[in-house]
Structures
1.
Amino acid sequence: MTAFRKILIANRGEIALRVIRACRELGIASVAVYSDADRDALHVTAADEAYRIGPPPASQSYLAVDALMDAAKRAKCDAVHPGYGFLAENAGFAKRCGAEGLTFIGPSPKSIEAMGDKIAARAAAQAAGVPSVPGTSDAVTDANSVRQLGERFGYPIVVKATAGGGGRGLKVVRAPAEAAAAFELAAKEAASYFANGTVYVEKYFERPKHVEVQVLADRYGNVVHLGERDCSMQRRHQKLVEETPACIADDVRSGLLAAAVKLARSIGYDSAGTVECLVDAGRFYFLEMNTRIQVEHTVTEMTWGVDLVKAQIRIAAGERLLLQQTDLAPRGHAIECRINAESPALDFRPCAGLITRYVEPSGPGVRVDAAAYTGYVIPQEYDSLLGKLVVWGEDREDARRRMLRALREYRIEGVDTTIPFLHKLLESDEFASGNYTTPSVAAFLAAHKDELEMTPSVSEIAVAQPQEATTLSVEVNNKRFEVRVAGALRANGSSAPGARRARRFKQTKRVETDGVAVVAPMHGIVAEIRVAPGDAVQDGQVVAVIEAMKMMNEVTAHRHGTVATIEARLGQTIETGAPIVTFA
C-alpha cells in the first residue's frame, strides 16, 4: 500500500475508470469529478466519491483548475491523477497541485516543461545525442516564413503546434500556395486546444512508421524501458490501432530503446512516459515525448506484465522502481483497437448520440477498457473515444486473429463506430504483413469506402426505466449521492408501478437543397467562416471550419459559385444539414 489515502482523478471516461481500478487494488480511495454532460458516466458511479465541477464545456469543467482544487480540498485528497489529455501535461497545473499540498501523479513540472514545448524538446533530444526530425529551432510567426522553410527543407513540410498533440494544431504543406491556410489553421487549433498558438516547422516524411517507447523512471535516477509500440495506423494524425512489438528491424529497435532511456535519464524524468519517434528508411528520429500515461499503455501491460498506472502512483509516492531492466522481458504480442463514435465512410465524422445496445467481447486474451453502456448518451463536447479493445496472442498472427474474433463480438448500436472499419483493416494484407505506414489508413479508406457498413443514426428513442426499485443520482452542494427509490417514476417525477419515462432527442435538422447551399456535414460549433458575401468560391475550397468532439473539421464547397449570404455565425452550435453559406 502506498502513502496516499485518497486520490482525485482529474479526468473522465475510460481513463478515469482505469485509474479508479488501480486505486482500488492499491487500497486507495478514489474521487471522481464530472461535468453536467457526464452526470450519468460510469466513472462517476465507480469512484468512492464524486463531485460536480461545472457545465459541459471542458474549459468550464475538466480544465477549470479552481473547481478541481476545490473538489480535492472538500474530499480531503492528498494526490491528483490527471489521466491523459486535459491537464495531464500542464506544468502549471502540476505546480498548482504542489502549492495546494497535493501530490501530482506524474513527472516533475520541470520535466513537463522540458518536453511540453516541442521546440524545447527537440533541443533536449539533440543535447542528449538523440537524432530528431529536421526542422526549426525557433517558432514561425507568419506564412511567408513557412514558405521559406519549405524551400529550405524541401516540400512537403508540416506546421505543428509547440504545445500540441493528438494531431491537433498540425497541418501538412505540400506546396507554397498551401502555406497561408496551413499556418492559420494550425495556429488557430493550437490556441483553441492548448491556449498557445505558437507553431514551428518540421520536414514531413511521406511514409514513415510512428513508433514509440514506453519508459518508467523514479526519483532516484533509475530508468527502464518496456519496449516499443507501433502506432502508425492513424487517421488525421490520430491513432486507431497500436501493437507491440513493432514490425521494425532489430537494430532499429535496439537503437530506439537505448535512445529513449538516455533521453529520460538526461532530463531527470520521474514517472511513466513515452518517447515518440518516426522510423523511415532504416533510421529513427525523435518526434516528441509525452509526459503522461498513453491511451495505448494497455498493449505494453499485456506483453510486459507491468501495471503502468500503479507504477505511476508508486513513483509519485516516492517509491523506487520495483524492477531493473534485466528483470523485464516481453511475452507474446498485443494489439489495441480504439473504438470511436465516428463514421469512417464519412471521413471519420464524429457521431454523438444515444447507444441503444452495447455488448462487449470477452474470452481468452481479451481486455476491454471502456466507459460505455446501453443507454449512454455520448456527449458532443468531448473526444469520440468510447473504449479500447485489446488482445494478447502468443505471436502476431495469433493476436490478429483474436482481434478479428473480438471485433465480431463487439456490438454497439445507435451510433456509428469504427468497429466495421477496424475489422476490414485488420483483415487486409497490408496489416497482416506489418508493412503499413502512417498514410495506410487513408489509402485503405479510399479503396474500401463503398464497402463499409453504415449504422443508421438514431434521432428519437424511448428508453424504458426499471419498474422495480431504482437508484437515482442527486447532488447536494455539488457532491454526488446515490438514493434508492422504490418503484419507477412517472414523467412528472411521481412513482407508479409500470411507469415509463421517454428520453427524446431532437430530430436532426435536414436541409433540402438543390446545390445552392453549403451545409454542415455534422453537428458542432462553427469555429471559423472563411468567406464573405460576394466572394467567388471554387469547387473544393474551404468555406468554414466546424469543431466537433474536439476535432476541427474543414467544410468545403461542393461547386463553383459566388457567395450570396452567410447563414451561420461564429460560435454557433449548428446541426447536421443546416446551411452555412448560400450561392447566388
2.
Amino acid sequence: MLDTAIVNGTLIDGSGTPRRQADVGIRDGRVVAIGDLDESAAHTIDAADLVVTPGFVDPHTHYDAQLFWDPLATPSSWHGVTSVIGGNCGFTIAPLKERDGDYIRRLMERVEGMPLAALEEGVRWTWDSFGEFLDAFEGAIAVNAGFMVGHCALRRYVMEGEDTRREATDAELSAMTDLLRRSLADGGLGLSTSRSNTHMDGDGQPVPSRYASEDEVLALCDVVGDYAGTSLEAITSGCIAGFDDDEIELLAAMSARAGRPLNWNVLTVTSADPERFARQLQPSVRAREMGGRVVALSMPVPAPMCMSLNTFCALWLIPGWDPILRRPVPERAQMLRDPAVRAEMQEHARGSALGGLARFDGYIIGDTYSAANEGLTGRKVRDIAAERGMDDTFEVLVDIVINDDFRTVLWPRDPMDIATGNLGEDFGAYADVWELEDVLLGGSDGGAHLDRMCGAPYVTRFLGDCVRGRQVLSLERAVQLISDAPARLYGLRERGRLAEGYHADIVVLDPATVDAGPPTLVNDLPGNSVRMLADPIGVHRVLVNGVETVVDGGPTGATAGTVLRSGRDTDTVSTR
C-alpha cells in the first residue's frame, strides 16, 4: 500500500519537459510510482485542476538561526520551498566557542538584520563544532536544510578576539584548515566568505574574513576540493559596485583551486547599463579558462524592501550616515534637526554609489506611530512635500521620522510594484539572461534582514508575474529554474525533480492564481521583534519527504525535513 497518492493532477516534473496528466504514488518518503497507480493509498490528495511540481530549492538563505524557533523556515515553506541552503556570505553561527557567542550574535544582527533579542531568546547556543550544530536540527525541522561553513566563524574560532583583525599566521591557517576539514567531514556543504566593504561587525569593524589574505582564502578552497559534494559561495565589494580585475581573478581562482562551483549574489540587469552586466559575468568567463565555474545568482523579481533611519539597513551604508544613525535616538534627533547635518548627509549621498537610495521624492510612507504623522501612510514623500510647500523631500522625510522617534517604515517604491529595474518593455531580454549557463535564479536572503525585506516568496511571485502575467517563459521552464536547476548546482541527491526513486518533495499549486500576497510587518519573533512576511496565494499543499508540512497555507506540525550533509546527501558537481 502507498502512504500517499496525489491523483487527478497535472504533473510538471522539473525536467523542463511538457506537462502531462499523471498520478504520483509515495511510500517511505520517496516517489515510487508516476502515472496510473495500481495500488491503494492510506492518504489521497485530489489535485484536480491543479499542478503538481517538485519542491522548490532556495540556494541563498540565512535560516541558520531562525530554524531554532521556526522549524518551517517561514515564509519560504509557505511558498513551496522544501530545501534551503544556509550559511552564506561567510556568516555562520558554527563552529562556535562559548566566548564568542555575543560577538557572533551582534555580527549577525549587523550584517544580516537578525534582531538581537530573537537571537538571544530564540536560539540555544549550546554547540561547539559544526557537526553539533547540524545535529541540533535532525528530526526538528520541516524543510531540508544544508549549510555552508562560514569563513568568519572559522577565523573567530581560531584567532581570538581582535586578533581576527589581521592576516593569519602559518600556524593559525593550519588550525583553520583543520577546523574546516572537520566541519566538512561533519556535513558542511562547503565554504562561504565575504570580502565586501559593506560588511561590518557589531563593533563597526570589518568582519573577520575581510582581513584574510588571498593565500588564506585559496588554501581553504584547496580543503573544500578534498571533500565530495561541496561547493563555494562568496561575496565581494564588486557584487554590488562592479568587479575589478583582482576580484574577477580571485573568484575564478577559488573555483579552479577547489574544483567546485562558486556562486555569488546578486546579479542585477538593466537595459540602461548593459556593459555593467557583461562585466559582472567576467568571473564566469575567466573561471572557464582556468577550469572552474562561477555562477551568478539573479532574482527574477525584486524583493519587497523597506528602509529605516532607526535600525540598520542599506541607507546606513551611505558614507557618513552610519556615525549619525548609530547614535541614541534623542541625540540622533537633535543632530538631524540641524540644517548643516542634513546638508552634509545629502552631500555624502550625492557622491556615493548608493546615492540612489537617498532619492526620497518617490519613497512611500509605510507604518507611522505618532499623531503628527496620522494620514501619511501610503503617500509619496514628493506629494507630502508639495502639500507642505517644501522643495526638499529629505527635509520632509526627516521631519516625519523624527515625529515617530525614527520608527517610520519607508518604502523606496510601492511594495507590490514588482516591475524589475528599468527594463520596462525590455523584460524579455532579462528573461534571456536566465537561460545563460552561469546564471541561476535565487538570492532571497530568507531569514535575514527580517524587518527590511521579504525575498523568500520570490518563487511564487515569479510564477505569478513572469509566467502568468508577462508570459515570458513557460510554467515548465519556470519550475525547472526554481527546483531542478538549483538542486543540480549543489548536487542535491535525488531532489529537484519528480521521478521514481526521488525524495517526495512536492508542491501542489493552482497555476491560475499562484502568487505572493502583499508584504506585512508582524511582531512574531522571539523578543517580540518585527519581521516582514507575505502570504502565499494558490499553494494548496507542500510535502517534504512525503509528509504534508503545509496545507492551505498553514503548518501541519510535521517536522519531516532532513539536514543535507555533504557527501551523504550531495554529489560532487563538475566544473567542466
3.
Amino acid sequence: MTDPDKADPETQNRAADHRALWLCVLLVAAAVAATWPVLEMGTNDDSSYTYIARHLAETGHIAYNGWTAVILIPQLVWAAGFVKLLGFSFFAVRLSTIVLALLLAAVIYRLGRESGLRPGFAAFAALTTMLSPLTMPSTVSFMSDVPAFFLFAVCLYGAVRAWNAATARAFAGWAVLVASAGFLSGLDRQIYWLAPVLFLPILAWVRRRQGGAAVPGAAWMLVAPAIALSLKWYAAQPYTLKEDIAGGLKGVTASALLHTEALLSGQLIFTLALMLTPVLAGMVAPGLRSVPRWAAAAAIGMVAAVGLAGLHWPQLQSPLMGNVLTHYGAVPVGVVVFGEPVLVLGTAAGEAITMGVVLCCAGGAFAVWSRRDAIRAGLRTDRSPVPIMVLSAVFTAGWVPVVLVRAATSPAIDRYVIPFIALAGIPLLWFFQQHMRGVLSRASWAMLAIFTVYGIAITHDAFAGGRARLEAAEALRRAGVPRTAISAGFEYDILTQLEAVGYVNHYLIGNPKGAYREVHCTDATPWYFEFLPQVQPRYVTSRSHIPGWAGAARPISYTTWLPPARRQIFAEKIPDEVRIGCH
C-alpha cells in the first residue's frame, strides 16, 4: 500500500486540483438548491423561450413566437431533451440551464488554471462569476445568458489551450474546438459569433512560425459562411423580430446619441466593477499603502464626493442599470406592475455600495500601478494570462461597438456583463497571486460570501413571490374567471397571449406580413400590454391592496429571506369604471 505522505508531488497537485474544481461545482449546486427555483411559470423573458422548447419537444420543429431577437437553437435542443426525459414542466426546462451552469463553473475553473492561476485562485474566479447576484437569477432561469456563455467559455478555453499548445496536432484540435463551440455560442446569442470570427485569425497569427496556421484559417472559412446561412435561415422564420437599428436612429441628434452612449458605457463599466468587488476588495489596503499619502487622501476624498453626489443624483446609487439587479430585488419592477414594490436597497445602501465600488477601483488601480514593472516582467513567463488578456481584449473591442449601437434603439441591461466577470477577474486574480499575496485575502472571501448570500436571497425571494402570484391567479381561475381576464405579471400574461393565439403582437415582426396589429391602449395600461392584446384584465394580482379596488380572493402569504420576511399577494377586482388593456 502506498503511503499518502510519500505520494508523488504531481499526484498530490492533481488531487488538489480536482478537489478545488469539485468544490466549485458543489458550491454552485448548493446555492442553486437554496434558491428553491420551483415555479410553474417563467421568469423575466423566458416564458416565451420555454414555450418554444415545449413545442420543439412535442413536434420536432422550432417555432418562434414574436418575443426573441436571439436564435436560441442550442439551448432549445438541449432543453427539449430534458422535456423528453422528464416530461414538460417549467422546472424541467430550468434544470437544463442549471446543469449547464455547473459545467460552466468547471470551465471557468479550468480557464483560470490554464491562465496561470493556482487552484484556490481559479476556484475564486469561478465562484465570483457563478455566485454573483447578477449571475444567480439567470442560472435558475431559461434565459439565454448562461447557455450561450457556457459555449463561449468553451470556445475561449479552446483558444487559450491552442495558444499554449506544444504540438501542431494539439493546436489543430483546439482550433477546431474554437470553431465549433464558437459557432454554437453564436447560434444561441448572435453576438458571440464575434468569438470564432476574431479568435481564429489571432491563433493563425500566433502560430505563423510554428506550423499549423492553416487549420484556424480553414476553420474560419467554414464558420463564416455557416454564420451567414444561419442568419439567412433565422430571418426567414415566421415570428422572429427584425431589429431596425438604422430606422431607430432617424431623428436622433449626434449630441443625444453621444450622451446616451457615454452614459451606457459608464453604467456597464460600473456594473462590471461592482461584480468584481470580491476580487478588488483584497487590493484596497495594499493599494492605498503603495502610493503617497496625498494620493490615498485624494482617493478617499473622491469616494466621499461620490457619496455626497448621490444625495442629489439618485441615479448614482447602485445598482445603476436594472433588469436583474434592481433596488427591489432580482426582477424588473415592471414585470409585476400592480401595487407597491418592497424596497430592498434603500438610499443609504445604494450610496454605500457605490462608494465601496469606487474605493475598491481606486485601491486596485493603485496596486496595479505601483507594481507595473513587475507585472510586465511576469507577463513574459510561461503560464501567464497573456492569451486570455489578448483574446478578451479583442472580443471586447468587437462587443462594445455592437452593444452601443444596438442600445440606441434597444436598452442595454446589466446581465450583458456576466461573461466579463470571468474575463476581467482571471487576470486580476493572477496579478494578486503573483505580485501581492500567495493566498486570497479575508476581505475578498468575506465580500464573496456577502455577494453569494445576497444573490441567493433575492433569487429565492423572486421565486417565492412568483409562486404566490401564480397561486393567487389559480384561485381566481378556480372561481370561474377566464385566464384572459386575469393579469398576474408579465411572465403569466405572456403565456396567456401565447396559448390564445400562438404569438406575441410585436411591432418588429416582419414575417408573416400583417401579423402585427396596431393597438390602442387605455392610459392606465402597463407597458407590456401593447404586446398582449388577448389579455383583457378584470382581475389582477397585486403586491399590495389598491385603494378603491375590491379584494377578489384571500391574500396569499409567502416568506422571504430579506425583510419584510412576511409578504402577501392580493387578488383584486378592477372597478367597472377603470379600463385596462389594449384593443
4.
Amino acid sequence: MRRLRNATIIALIATAFPLAAQMNVAGTQTLASGPKLNLDTGAVSPSTGDLYWLSSGELVAFGNATIASVPSSVTAANFSSITQAQLLAYTYNQTMIYGPAAGNIFAVHTNGGNYAAVLVTAEAPDQSTITLQFITFTAPSISQVINNYSLVPPGFPNSGIAPGSLFIVKGGSLASATSVSYTPCASPCTQLISSAAPGLPATSNGASVSVTVNGTTVTPAFYYATATQLALVMPSNTPAGAGTLTVTYNGQTSVPFNIQVVANAFGFAAYHGNGSGLGLSTNASNYALYNYTNSIPPGATVVLYGSGLGADPARDTVYTPVAFSVNSLAHIYVGEIDSSVFYQGASGYPGLNEIDVTIPANAPSGCHVPVVGVNAAGVPTNFITLPIGTGVCEDPASGLDGAMLSSLAAQTTVNTGSITITVPLNSAGNVQSNIVSSVPVSFYTYTGGGFGAQPGIVSSGGCIANSIPYSTATIGLESGNISVIGQNLILVPSIPGTDPFALSAGTVGPGGSVTFQVAGSSQVSGFTATVTIPTPSLNWTNQNAASTITRSQGLDVTWTGGQTGTYVSISGLQGALPTGANYSFLCVAPVSAGHFSVPPWVFAALPVNTVSIQVANQTIPVTFSASEIDYGYTQGFDGQTVAASLQ
C-alpha cells in the first residue's frame, strides 16, 4: 500500500477563506464605478468586496460572491422583515444584474459565506452611482454538505456522505477562524489539525457539529474550521439513511440541514480541488506527481486519492499506518477500459482513501483521459482526467498541449476568449433553413487554478460527466462592440461575459466561414477572428436510438460524413435542479470512427429522466491573438439534437 505524504494531504484539504462578521450587518451605501461593497462588514473598498457598480449600468458580483433572484412577494415595503431562512432557500448562480432600477431586490451569497438581501434605493440619472440598502445575516448557516473531493451536490445519484469519509460543510459564521494553513501563521490564522495522537478533535475554533440519522447522533471530528467552511470526518458508526446536521458556534445553533448518509460514495481528488479536471495521481514506486508535462505511460501503476470508500473505524480520528481494504468499487475505467485495481482502502490518514490502479496498455493517450469508478450497484464516482502518454501530453481534439496547460495554470489570472458557431442540422444532415445558428462569444478571467480545473474538456475516445452548481469563471470581461464582416448578424447589446449572438438562418453552412470584428475595450484589445464550419456536414444515422435510452445499456451513436481529420462530440445537458446544480456530459471521438458507445455509467449519474443530446462535428480549435487575452480560440460545429427519455 502507498501512503500519501503529509504535505500533499494538507494541500488537498487546506484552503484559505475570508473572515465573516459575527453579528448581523445592515446599512446603506452609495457606490461609484469601481469600488466594492463588502456586505459582511458594510465597508467599501477599492480592492475587495462582494458587489461593484459599472457606469455602463451593470451591478456585478466580485470574487466568489453570487447573486439570486427573489420572488415578487419580497418588496420594498417588507424588505426589513426578510429572514435568513428565506435567503437560504434561493438559488445563487448569477454573477451580474443589468440595469438595476430603484426598488429592485436581490440576494447575495457573500465571499464570507453569509447571505444578504439588497434593495436598490436610487440610481443616478447618468448611471455614475447607485445606492444600496442591505441586510446581512451572520448566525451560523449551512449552504452545502458534500464530499471533500467529489463535491457532488445533493440530488445526484452519486452524492451522499459515507461513514469514515472526509466531508465539508459550507456556509457562513461557522467558526472564528479566517483561514486555514499548514505552515505556521500569525493570529487569526489556524492550522490544519494533526491526526497524530491524540487525533482529530470534536471541536475547533469554537465550532461543533452534530449529525443525527435514524435516531443515532454522532459527532464528526475536525481537520479545520473557518467562518465559511468546516472539514470533518464522518464517524464510521454513523448509520445509513436520511439525517440532519447542525453547526453550533458562538452560542447559536444553525437550522438543521438535511443530509443523506450512504454506505459508500467515493470521490476522486482533483489536482485543483474542484472535483473534476486533472486528477491527483502519483507514481506507485517513487511518489512522483504526474501532471501535464510528466504524463503517465501506459502500463504504469499509479496511486489515486480521494474519500468515501466506506467505514474504517481504526482511522476516524488518528493516523494509523496499517493497510485496511475497503473494496467498494467494482471497476475503475480509464478511457472506458476496465483497469486492474491492486488496492483500495485506507491511506493511513483519517477519511483519506487511496486506490492503486494500473493504466491499461491500450488506454487512449491525451491530456484529459477520463477516469471513473463504479460500485457494485452501478453508481459512478465523480469523473477526473489524467495525462497519459510520454513526457508532455498532447491533445489534438482540444487544441491544447501539456506545455500550454501548465503555463496557463501557473499564472495568477488567465484571460480567455472564445467565438464559436454551431450550425443546426435536420434529421437528414442538412442545414435547417428556419433555425438560426448559435454564436456564443465569451470573454472571461479565471484564476490560474480555475483555468486548469475546467471540467469541460475530454480527450478523444472518452467521456466525462459533471455536476455544475455555478460558473467557474470569476469575472466577465468587456469586449466592446462585436460585428461581422460580410455576413448578416442579429446583434444584441455588448455585455460582460457571454454575448449571445445568432446568425440569420441559412447565412452559413458546411465549409462556410464568418469573420468577426471585435472593437475592443479597456479590458480586451480589438481583433478579428474567423470561424469555419466543417464540411461535409455530419449525419447522425441512428437518432431514433436516443429517443429512449436504457441507462444500464448505454447508447451506441453512429454517423456518416463529417470533415476528415476532425472530431465528433456527443454531449448532453439537463436543466437546473432545485439546488441550482445542473448536469452535463461530453464524449469525443475521431470522425473517422463512424460510431461511439456512450457507456452506462455516464447515464447512471443523471439525476432525472430526460436529457437533450447533441451529436456534432467539431473543427480543431484555431487560436487568435489579442494583447490582453492569454488564450483565445475559434471553433465551428454542425450537429443534430434530440430529446432523450432515460429508463
